[in-house]
TrEMBL record:
CDD domains: PPAT. Substrate binds at S20, K52, L84, R98. This is Phosphopantetheine adenylyltransferase. Belongs to the bacterial CoaD family. Its main location: cytoplasm. Its EC number is 2.7.7.3. ATP binds at S20, F21, H28, G99, I100, R101, E109, Y134, S135, Y136, L137, S138, S139, S140. SUPFAM superfamilies: Nucleotidylyl transferase. GO terms for biological process: coenzyme A biosynthetic process.
């Protein structure tokens, strides 16, 4: 990896994988595992977006992410509500990791990457292609299935499946 995306101070290659993770799916986890192999430290950062109404609170999403990544020593979990580039600078990271599932993802991601590059040209966005197994998978689809008590066993880690069952337990 080029020295230009190393962290200036420590020389460590730090990347941030930002997202809503409401909740984390097998598709996200696949990206996390693959990205963790490419960097010294990967920070998975939950976006605390006040304009969206999430199913899981930021703390719940962080907790689930922490549980499903506990075997990955160079992965840590954080959250942010500021501009992403400000968060990246504060963490002394230089790389944003995003996943791409489709052409639709690509168009949105290209816009985001260009905007972030405009805001800070030292920050590079790196895209990882989805594992084809998970190309259709999104947090929204998982929530829709779980809401109607469908089986999400192959779509999310077991901890997340339990959390979804608890959320949608009939009163
Ligand atoms: P956001 O609201 O920022 O898109 P998401 O939690 O939906 O947050 O997604 C975070 C990132 O993970 C995005 O880059 C998205 O494209 C990627 N992603 C989501 N689901 C998958 C999947 N099944 N395979 C690969 N990447 C995915």
């Amino acid at each position: 990896m080029s020295a230009s995306i190393s962290t200036a101070g420590t020389g460590k290659r730090v990347a941030v994988y930002p997202g809503s993770f409401d909740p984390v799916t097998c598709g996200h986890l696949d990206i996390i595992r693959r990205a963790a192999k490419q960097f010294d430290h990967l920070i998975v950062a939950v976006l605390n977006n006040t304009s969206k109404k999430p199913l899981f609170s930021v703390d719940e999403r962080k907790q689930l992410l922490a549980e499903v990544t506990q075997d990955l020593p160079n992965v840590s979990i954080d959250s942010f509500r500021d501009l992403l580039v400000n968060f990246i600078r504060a963490k002394e990271a230089h790389v944003i990791v995003r996943g791409i599932r489709s052409v639709t993802d690509f168009e949105y991601e290209l816009q985001m990457a260009s905007t972030n590059h405009q805001l800070d040209e030292d920050i590079e966005t790196i895209f990882m292609m989805t594992n084809p197994k998970y190309s259709y998978l999104s947090s929204s689809i998982v929530k829709e299935i779980a809401m109607f008590h469908g089986n999400v066993q192959d779509l999310v880690p077991p901890e997340v499946q339990q959390a979804l069952i608890a959320k949608y337990k009939p009163e």
